Amino acid sequence: MNLLYNIIVYSVIGGIRFVALFNKKLSIFVKGRNAIFSTLAAKLAPKDEVIWFHSASLGEFEQGIPIIEKLKAHHPNYKILVTFFSPSGYEVRKNYPLADCVSYLPFDTPKNAQKFIASLNIKLAIFIKYEFWPNFLKALKQNQIPTILVSGIFRNNQLFFKAYGGFYRNSLQSFNHFFVQNQLSKDLLNNIGITAVSLSGDTRFDRVFSITKQAKKLDFIAAFTKDKMTLVAGSTWPEDEEILMNYINNFASDKEKFILAPHNIKEAGIKQLINSCQKTSCCYSDPKKDSQAQVLVIDSIGLLTSVYGYATIAYVGGGFNKSGIHNILEPASYGLPIIIGPNYEKFNEAKALIQLGACTTIADKKAFNTAYLNLIDNAETIPRKGALSKTYILKNIGATDKIYTFIKSQLNLK
User: Fold this and answer.
1) What mean pLDDT do residues 307-329 have?
2) Which pTM value belongs to this model?
3) Is residue 97 part of a domain?
4) Disulfide engineering: 400 pairs with which of 20, 66, 307, 345, CB 3.0-4.6 Å?
5) How far apart are CA 165 and CA 279, in angstroms?
């Protein structure tokens, strides 16, 4: 099976390299891997004690940040290596200040894995959520490098739990410990004989809670929202915006304010959104923006997390797309009632918040109007649902400390 896997890997690499000749995104994916080993050699000396964090992309990396921050704060002598599989993660975080080196992960061939491990003095390898590369895991085990998975989540339909998944099950034996998000993941691993598993929860809660505590003060947003019922709609797509604009244009009163932060902030999309609005509106980047307008469009990146701090109610976009809703934990950390679209099944936190009554799911314009009016027309509903959101976050923070305690024991840190 190992031979077959390697044949498939080499075949896929060949296919990717060919298609990359005609595809810009894949070209970035391939070219980014050309300088991996020279980058490692330039930034990490052979004697440097390295803690390696690997994540598939940007979302998974966010789950590793609280652990990196803790290690850097208490053990700055260790060098932090961060690797990504995808360009979307690497391009955004290639200058992450707490990492001593940020790189792509080489393709999972035996030669690459052995060269990668041999070129570094890795003291601990940390994989985030998923990403199981058999040749790299094999090399880590052969070199007796402690390896852990954090914020892991497993499902019944994964290959590890199929009758024909023995090769992938064997790869899991390379891990010294698994820190998983839920009881199902723990049970699935236990059922295939893996017992070094801790139910730690998800480090995203720690990350989001920390971010909201460090939110920026935004004077214009404070002036815009002052004394008004404010809906902040984050990471919206056209399908979300159509529903929101239907309410804003036809039903909103002068006592309400709306802040829309589109997922795509390209000029054409922002212009179309502003043109669809029949109320007074402005863009955040406009030097002449008016705090007396009723609708504000956030056309700058990096503000949404802080903007949620000025909301009365949150709407989280993406629920009408295949990929599903965006980050629901940020508004929950501020203690807000939340409204989302119907595609949330892959997101345990959304299901939990819905079950608690902190979050409402809607399927169309009429359902949004009903859900939103139920909130603003009942004075006690907003603080009650918001408190449920906040309590949910507070009950789920702490995964970072559990993982950090284990890391200290593995590395004999004090």
Assistant:
1) 95
2) 0.85
3) yes
4) 66
5) 57
The C-alpha atoms of residue 181 and residue 399 are separated, in whole angstroms, by 9
Cα angle 153, 154, 160; round to 5: 145
Q: Is the pLDDT of residue 241 over 90?
A: yes
Name all contacts of 244-248 with Cβ < 8 Å and 24+ positions apart.
244/315, 244/368, 245/273, 245/276, 245/277, 246/365, 246/368, 246/369, 247/365, 247/368, 247/369, 247/372, 248/277, 248/278, 248/279, 248/294, 248/295
SS3 180: strand
* CATH number (domain holding residue 60): 3.40.50.11720
Task: Supply the CATH number for residue 226's domain.
Answer: 3.40.50.2000
When divided into structural domains, the chain yields a total of 2
Question: Is residue 86 helix, strand or coil?
Answer: coil
User: What span, in angstroms and rounded, lies between the C-alpha atoms of 296 and 280?
Assistant: 9
Model pLDDT for residues 10-63, shown as the tens digit of each residue: 898 889 888 888 888 788 888 888 889 999 999 999 999 999 999 999 889 999
Counting beta carbons within 10 angstroms of the beta carbon of residue 1, is it exposed (0 to 12), middle (13 to 18) or buried (19 or more)? exposed
Give residue 414's pLDDT. 64
